[in-house]
Design a protein that fits this description.
It is found in: Postsynaptic cell membrane. This protein is an alpha/beta fold. The protein contains 29 helices and 32 strands. Helix 2 crosses helix 3 and helix 26 packs across helix 27. The structure holds glutamic acid.
């Protein structure tokens, strides 16, 4: 593996290719290190070293990613021993907790140099004289002690999540005692592990100490930069007045981003910086680490952690130590590399314990032969930025801790009585303290100052109809009417105008929330959207359809509600029922109509048959000529007529006399009575109501079906309502909505409403009733609100805690409400501008119009026309019969007959003169007047009209019964 070559002489540090062998070093990483880029940082630095041809030697670098529990000291020891058997000359690890004992144990007993890129948890007095360890991360105790003395604090709270905090506090004490006569009390508080608990933890903390008005100075000592970011986010969004607090971030991860964010807020905070971020080496490291995919997935906001810089510098320290060792004796390692193995004291590998070996039977137990020499070199190295370090000057003291390093201390102080925030940048040097003439103080104007003269209030809002809309024509135009606040219109814009009229010096500037977001709490405790703007000072006031809820009320102030509403359901209007001209048929189904026709024919046949068989229906009649006829009224034709008359609720002059006939008729009458009354009852409902059968009528309907999908707007109070509801049905709905692919969540109301309109009734949208009702009054008028509201919420104007506008806004809103101004505004934006006829009602109308009943007129007309046609047929038929009666079957006769019939029809009557044929016929009829009229022989028109050609043979003219 590694072969020593001919020894060359070290004459200067810059010997090129002086020693081409590879020096084996071994690093150890813990769970989580890979994800945080530690291994990447190692690889980067070792590769950079190995690729530099100016370097006199190369590293053979190996890493072992320990997957052990944090307390498995024995397991770790065993693994290191295994690695040692293959041989390495230095180990590099970052360990501050329990496993440190394992590393230090091996380092001390086998004299293996150990570079800890973190900070050794041992107190200086604990460190044995044979100390083989150096720590690249500098200790903070002295710096913190100097800061406490500088600020003259006599009570501090030390919040920590690591193991060695007690030692650190103890060291701070020692330094304070050494340097001053200040008496300081300290309290240790453990920070919860779970990031989501940080907000509650801070709140509880504040609550418990609320009574003591004593200023609270909190030193935050968290182990990783990621945890620190979470904690700082929790501080930024902490829901209490933090004027009495001063935070100190005790590791070296206070980034420029943090400074910027806190500078604009009103929190007192001090942080330390050690990293030289401007250096090209830093940029290259950052690029490399970010290019590794595990790191790229992390939050981009998090600047590269200082621990990566320590890892980087640990490799430089190792390199410097070997250079230093070889500089003294360049052939020192010549005996150590044979046959690709590392030989120690003449035997291959380094063993933690005496080993029985066939080849080397009497192998004695021995420490690493060059360990002490290398550690000596480690303690004497002196590196600075010129050597490529990222954490400044690197020198180690007797116990292996950094000395002579410099730290930049950034102190952000916000005085509640001043209009300015103060930012002080101080330089601090180890064993020297704050360097007096290198402090730079800057004053920045506060975001919300009491003393600040007239300022423009920044109002954040979101676009939602009809609350805030872009004026028509201003979407793309940049004309002067579309500049600034003039670009917007809507209920909230009018409300803002009213508020500014009532509040003195309330000049405002409206801007829209990025992504049209209202604001929800993020997993790290921060807020996005409108609430986020209020918390980070981006906005002074929020005037929007912003729902007041508990979560938000904890972080910002809300005015009294200016409007109340609730979550409601919007669906697409179902299509109106189609009415045809034969709608009057609809009360009974086609099937029933068919059965009625069959029943009608059937009943007629039955009546015909029973009448035929029943003797009571037969009558004997004497005829005028003395004969007798036996007749039955119920011919097929008459039966049909009788049954039809009964169905139409009319009477006829024939009625059954037999019991059988009467039974059949009664049954039919009963049947028709029920059918007709049912028809009548249904008819009213069918003809007068344009019923719109909505498929969904309540939230329960919606929840229990899956045909119609439903969704909500994400990132607002509605989604919070469903997410945290304890009501089973809403929980079920939330689970359903979450599980849908493609998603049923929309980013704006407009998108949701569009979806309702375009999905042909297959999508319902849950939104606040205000926006729902507005949309229903807009063209194309195809949406409607169904069911009752799911909850009741209010919209309020939000301001950050401690805002000077809060009380003014509250009073103004109450006044506007009392005077009815808010109601007027509501009418203006909701009802006066409605574009749909039926407004927001469900569109039912009670009038009966022609289109629905035109059919009966058609039937009437049809009846009349057919009766006229029938009359014509009868007329022609009769004329022909009459003509035949004349026995002269020629055209002349037919024409005469027609003519006479026509005359009678037009004249409407005629006089029978004495001696005429008609007169004779009438006389005959009179003679037979004993007979019932209809059975007598009526006179024919021909006879009556006195036709000379008539044979005087009386025929039956009237055939009707
Ligand atoms: N008004 C809601 C809010 O303040 C936004 C809309 C919604 O969530 O339905 O978050």
């Amino acid at each position: 593996m590694i072969f020593p070559f001919i020894a060359l002489f070290w004459t200067s540090v810059h010997v090129v290719h002086a020693w081409p062998a590879k020096i084996p070093i071994q690093s150890y990483t813990m769970p989580g290190d890979r994800e945080q880029g530690v291994i990447a940082a190692f690889n980067f630095t070792v590769e950079r070293h190995n690729n530099n041809r100016m370097n006199p030697f190369k590293f053979a670098y190996r890493n072992r990613d320990m997957r052990t529990s944090p307390s498995d000291t024995w397991g770790v020891t065993k693994k290191i021993c295994d690695d040692l058997e293959h041989g390495f000359m230095m180990m590099v690890a970052g360990e501050t907790n329990r496993l440190h004992t394992a590393f230090l144990g091996i380092a001390d007993h086998l004299e293996i140099p150990f570079v800890n890129w973190d900070l050794s948890p041992l107190l200086p007095q604990e460190v044995a004289s044979s100390n083989m360890e150096v720590s690249v991360r500098p200790p903070t105790a002295e710096l913190l002690a100097d800061l406490i003395i500088y600020k003259r604090w006599n009570y501090v709270i030390y919040m920590y999540d690591g193991k060695n905090s007690a030692q650190n506090v103890q060291q701070i004490y020692t330094f304070i005692q050494e340097k001053s006569n200040l008496s300081v009390r300290a309290e240790l508080v453990r920070i919860p592990r779970d990031a989501s608990e940080l907000g509650d933890f801070l709140r509880d903390f504040n609550l418990h100490r609320f009574l003591s008005n004593e200023p609270k100075r909190i030193i935050i000592d968290v182990q990783t930069s990621y945890r620190q970011q979470q904690f700082l986010a929790a501080i930024r969004t902490a829901q209490f007045n933090q004027h009495h607090y001063h935070y100190v971030v005790a590791n070296f991860d206070f980034s420029p981003y943090d400074i910027e964010v806190f500078q604009n807020g009103n929190t007192n905070i001090t942080g330390f910086q050690l990293l030289s971020r401007e250096r090209g080496e830093y940029a290259a490291l950052k690029r490399y680490v970010e290019s590794q995919k595990f790191y790229a997935s992390m939050d981009k906001n998090i600047d590269i952690e200082s621990r990566l810089a320590f890892v980087h510098d640990a490799v430089l320290v190792a390199k410097a130590a070997f250079e230093q060792t070889l500089r003294k004796n360049d052939s020192l390692f010549h005996q150590n590399f044979r046959h690709g193995d590392l030989f120690n004291r003449g035997y291959p590998g380094i063993y933690c314990y005496p080993k029985q070996d066939t080849k080397y039977e009497d192998r004695p137990f021995g420490t690493f032969e060059h360990g002490r020499a290398i550690v000596k070199a480690l303690h004497s190295i002196q590196l600075d930025e010129k050597d490529g370090t990222l954490t400044g000057n690197i020198e180690f003291d007797r116990v292996g801790l950094r000395k002579n390093f410099e730290v930049t201390v950034v102190d952000l102080v916000s005085n509640s009585k001043s209009a300015f925030n103060k930012k002080e940048i101080m330089e601090w040097k180890h064993s020297v303290g704050f360097i007096a003439n290198r402090t730079i103080a800057q004053h920045t104007r506060k975001q919300l100052g009491d003393v600040v003269s007239k300022k423009i209030v920044k109002v954040a809002t979101v676009l939602v109809e009809p609350f805030v809309m872009i004026k028509r024509g201003c979407e793309t135009s940049n004309s002067s009417e579309c500049q600034g606040n003039e670009r917007f219109e809507g209920y909230c814009i009018d409300l803002l105008k009213l508020l500014s009229d009532r509040i003195e010096d309330f000049e405002y500037e409206i801007f829209l929330s990025a992504g049209n977001k209202y604001g929800v709490k993020q997993p790290d405790g921060s807020w996005d959207g409108l609430i986020g703007y209020l918390l980070n000072g981006g906005a002074d006031v929020v005037v929007a359809s912003l729902t007041i809820n508990q979560d938000r009320e904890r972080v910002v102030d809300f005015s009294k509600p200016f409007m109340t509403t609730g979550i409601s359901i919007m669906i697409k209007k179902p299509d109106k029922q189609e009415f045809s001209v034969f709608s009057f048929m609809q009360p009974l189904s086609t099937e029933i109509w068919m059965y009625i026709i069959f029943a009608y024919v059937g009943v007629s046949v039955v009546i015909f048959l029973v009448s035929r068989f029943s003797p009571y229906e037969w009558r004997v009649e004497e005829m005028a000529n003395g004969g007798f006829t036996i007749s039955n009224d119920f011919s097929v034709y008459n039966c049909l007529w009788f049954t039809l008359a009964a169905f139409m609720q009319q009477g006829t002059d024939i009625l059954p006399r037999s019991i059988s006939g009467r039974i059949a008729s009664s049954a039919w009458w009963f049947f028709t009575m029920i059918i007709v009354s049912s028809y009548t009852a249904n008819l009213a409902a069918f003809l007068t109501l344009e019923k719109m059968q909505a498929p969904i009528e309540s939230v329960e309907d919606l929840a229990k079906q899956t045909k119609i999908k439903y969704g909500i707007q994400g990132g607002g109070s509605t989604s919070q309502f469903f997410k945290y509801s304890s009501v089973q049905i809403y929980q079920r709905m939330w689970r359903y909505m979450e599980s849908q692919v493609p998603t049923v969540f929309t980013s704006t109301y407009a998108e949701g409403i569009e979806r309702v309109r375009n999905h042909k009734g297959r999508y319902a949208f849950l939104l606040e009733a205000t926006a729902n009702e507005y949309a229903n009054t807009r063209k194309p008028c195809d949406t409607m609100k169904v069911g009752a509201n799911l909850n009741s919420v209010g919209y309020g104007v939000a301001t950050p805690f401690g805002s000077e506008y809060k009380d003014h806004i509250n009073l103004a809103i109450l006044a506007l409400q009392e005077r009815g101004e808010l109601k007027k505004l509501e009418n203006k934006w909701w009802y006066d501008r409605g574009q749909c006829d039926q407004g927001i009602t469900d569109g039912s109308s009670a009038s009966l119009n022609l289109s629905k009943v035109a059919g009966i007129f058609y039937i009437l007309m049809g009846g009349m026309i057919s009766s006229m046609i029938a009359a014509l047929c009868e007329f022609l038929y009769r004329s022909r019969i009459e003509a035949r009666k004349g026995r002269i079957n020629n055209m002349q006769n037919l024409r005469d007959s027609l003519y006479q019939q026509l005359r009678l029809s037009f004249q409407g009557g005629a006089i029978a003169k004495e001696g005429s044929q008609a007169h004779e016929a009438l006389k005959r009829q009179k003679a037979s007047s004993l007979l019932p009229a209809q059975y007598s022989d009526p006179i024919t028109s021909e006879e009556f009209m006195g036709s000379t050609k008539s044979a005087g043979f009386p025929g039956r003219y009237n055939t009707a019964v």
